[in-house]
Amino acid sequence: MTLDVTDLQKTYPTGDEALKGVDLSIGGSETTAMIGPSGAGKSTFIRCINRLTEPTEGSIELDGTDLTALDDDGLREARRDIGMIFQEYNLVERLTVMENVLTGRLGYVSGWQAFRRSFPPDDVERAYEILERVGLGDMENKRVDELSGGQRQRVGIARAVIQQPTILLVDEPTSSLDPETSNTVMRLLTEIAAEREIPVLINIHEVDLATEYADRIVGLHDGEVVFDGPPDDLRDGALDRVYRGGDGDDTSESASVTDSASPDTAVPADGVVSADGRTPDRSASGGS
Ligand SMILES: Nc1ncnc2c1ncn2[C@@H]1O[C@H](COP(=O)(O)OP(=O)(O)OP(=O)(O)O)[C@@H](O)[C@H]1O
């Protein structure tokens, strides 16, 4: 599977130019992390890919099919191939874990079956397998409003995976989670990408998680890609380009953003950046 995005632009009706011509190709079973400060356009980019947000210009080709040219039926079909995982989980709170996971199959059953929420036995069997895989093997009958943040995110992952997508798009999966749970979720996402041989694109605030788990980092600043490369190349100069729009001279030893950044974009000594300026609270608890 390959996703080829060319010259993607998005200008909101408010006049905000969220994307100013982004080119990006991803494929294989590569994990790509998209980093950038708040407002850089990360969420807009991911939402444009499956047209939850309509792009203004550009093309988005999934295995050669231009998603921007599809009508409603075509888009519905194409979306089956795109697994989405959201920051706030987007689960149905009053339904059980199993019911939430099976909603990932709604695109495959008839309208009547969907209305009755009646799913083929194969789907149910696969749901059990996937719940086991994400570590929720004994929780299928729990209501999701009884779960911790980390458990909810695993339900979100299971719901995306049961679609049998050819790509996973993940929008800030860890921003409501404590550091340990964030690591678990990132590990799970990269393992699933490898096992299923599908690419995964993850928007993420924490640079340390991005560099630890991703094969490739894409840095957005003000709607433009200003860095695209392996985690090892993400030195101070590159971080400066991404978070401050600087020239990003990596040859200068004094280019450390730790020394020069304004408080709202400072990179702490451990390299952890919260793009909205918050240093993640490592003592915060979010459950696992
Ligand atoms: N629905 C909308 N209407 C108008 N402007 C919007 C809308 N959504 C986003 N924007 C603007 O588009 C720009 C990019 O926003 P976006 O949410 O994509 O950035 P982001 O990098 O995901 O930020 P964050 O890390 O805070 O989630 C911002 O200037 C934002 O104000």
From TrEMBL:
Residues 253-263 have a biased composition (Polar residues). Residues 242-288 are annotated as: Disordered. Keywords: ATP-binding, Cell membrane, Membrane, Nucleotide-binding, Translocase, Transport. CDD domains: ABC_PhnC_transporter. SUPFAM superfamilies: P-loop containing nucleoside triphosphate hydrolases. It holds the Pfam family ABC_tran. Signal peptide: none annotated. Residues 3-247 form the ABC transporter domain. PROSITE patterns: ABC_TRANSPORTER_1 (PS00211), ABC_TRANSPORTER_2 (PS50893). GO terms for molecular function: ATP binding. The keyword Cell membrane applies. InterPro entries: AAA+_ATPase, ABC_transporter-like_ATP-bd, ABC_transporter-like_CS, ABC_transpr_PhnC, MetN_ABC_transporter-like, P-loop_NTPase. NCBIfam families: ABC_phnC (TIGR02315). PANTHER family: AMINO ACID IMPORT ATP-BINDING PROTEIN, PHOSPHONATES IMPORT ATP-BINDING PROTEIN PHNC. This is Phosphonate ABC transporter ATP-binding protein. It comes from Halorubrum pallidum.
